[in-house]
């Protein structure tokens, strides 16, 4: 069991806000290529934050419902404010648990909820090189032997229950499955991960060739992972983590200028004013995304389309806010501020790397298509 159970969304949000400064204080020590924030995830477990998207009856905080979207986004923002590398892996952990609840059967939901309560880490491994992608080869006994590899497998070597996509035999589509990685660890290529930022996410290449799974490990029907609006609509969660990183940049810039007694400089005041406006805009976008998630009926084609378009709009705006925040901070702190052990160099690397999410142009074009078709979010 987790050491602390957070029974309500408000309690989960409060716990995340409380742990953020502790994560930030430890972030520089964790910023090691190939490393992983094991200690920090121990803190998340002790605080009850690994189970927040489970129903309260299963030891969670009910953050799995559309009505609880805003506190879920705030939890992710606070963790991202503390450490973006932790936030990246944590968002994947929650994403996997949400997908299992949405697509798994009752026995699977119960089993993996118990694993989460025991402190096991989940995640989502989807990215692959097409030439060496993951395949499920059928065996005579109803099981499958895996073949192929995933890249950018965040938390590799640390996740006990990665949720993975693979191609079924004979063109039957893409299948989600949970790999019991503690019992069947994939072969890891650590040399793959030589990143600009997010060093401590351990996003290695994971070769699954030769491992076996059974029908009980398959989550949902084929191609369920790519169904909308869940596939693209989930972008609001990683955007919330990114906004937390931008908030950390703002807070550290403010503290840096106060430490140098530069708060009376009119140009510094102007830049801090711009940063404050950008951050407040991002917080409003979080609320807007939550309002849309609670209001739109994703069960209809119109609601699903609007959910995806709004998520694409939000991720695009948050990216711009983060990029503007980084540029303003650089001008404010100057070359002196970009020297370690000050945090700006690490924050800049981590946030810049994390902002490189897939298909940003397609996401923006989707928003344009939506409005050009005369549709609205109301």
Automatic annotation (TrEMBL):
The keyword RNA-binding does not apply. Keywords: Oxidoreductase. Residues 238-352 form the Acyl-CoA dehydrogenase C-terminal domain. It comes from the Bacteria. InterPro entries: Acyl-CoA_dehydrogenase, Acyl-CoA_DH_C, Acyl-CoA_Oxase/DH_mid-dom_sf, AcylCo_DH-like_C, AcylCoA_DH/ox_N, AcylCoA_DH/ox_N_sf, AcylCoA_DH/oxidase_NM_dom_sf. Residues 24-114 form the Acyl-CoA dehydrogenase/oxidase N-terminal domain. Belongs to the HpaH/HsaA monooxygenase family. This is Acyl-CoA dehydrogenase family protein. It comes from Hymenobacter antarcticus. The lineage of its organism: Bacteria, Pseudomonadati, Bacteroidota, Cytophagia, Cytophagales.
């Amino acid at each position: 069991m987790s050491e602390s159970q957070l029974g309500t969304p408000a309690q989960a949000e409060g716990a995340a806000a409380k742990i953020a400064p502790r994560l930030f204080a430890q972030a520089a020590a964790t910023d090691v290529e190939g490393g992983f924030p094991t200690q920090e995830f121990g803190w998340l477990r002790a605080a009850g934050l690994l189970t927040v998207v489970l129903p309260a009856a299963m030891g969670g905080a009910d953050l799995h419902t559309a009505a609880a979207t805003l506190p879920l986004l705030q939890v992710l923002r606070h963790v991202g404010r503390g450490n973006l590398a932790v936030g990246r892996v944590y968002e994947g952990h929650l994403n996997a648990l949400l997908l299992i609840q949405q697509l798994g059967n009752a026995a699977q939901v119960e089993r993996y909820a118990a694993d989460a309560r025991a402190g096991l880490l989940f995640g989502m491994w989807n990215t692959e090189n097409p030439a060496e992608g993951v395949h499920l080869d059928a065996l005579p006994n109803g099981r499958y032997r895996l073949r192929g590899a995933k890249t950018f497998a965040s938390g590799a070597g640390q996740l006990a229950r990665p949720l993975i996509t693979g191609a079924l035999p004979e063109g039957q589509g893409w299948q989600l499955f949970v790999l019991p990685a503690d019992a069947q660890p994939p072969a890891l290529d650590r040399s793959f991960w030589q990143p600009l930022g997010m060093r401590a996410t351990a996003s290695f290449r994971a070769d699954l060739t030769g491992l076996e799974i059974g029908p009980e490990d398959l989550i949902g029907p084929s191609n369920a992972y790519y169904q909308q609006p869940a596939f693209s609509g989930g972008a609001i969660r990683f955007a919330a983590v990114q906004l937390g990183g931008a908030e950390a940049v703002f807070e550290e810039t403010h503290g840096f200028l106060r430490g140098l007694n530069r708060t009376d400089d009119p140009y510094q005041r102007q830049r801090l004013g711009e940063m404050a406006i950008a951050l407040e805009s991002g917080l409003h976008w979080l609320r807007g995304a939550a309002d849309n998630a609670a209001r739109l009926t994703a069960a209809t084609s119109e609601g699903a389309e609007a959910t995806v378009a709004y998520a694409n709009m939000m991720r695009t705006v948050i990216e711009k806010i983060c990029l503007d925040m980084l540029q303003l901070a650089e001008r404010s702190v100057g070359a002196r501020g970009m020297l370690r052990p000050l945090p700006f160099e690490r924050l800049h690397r981590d946030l810049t790397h994390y902002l490189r999410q897939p298909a940003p142009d397609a996401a923006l074009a989707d928003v344009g298509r939506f409005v050009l078709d005369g549709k609205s979010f109301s």
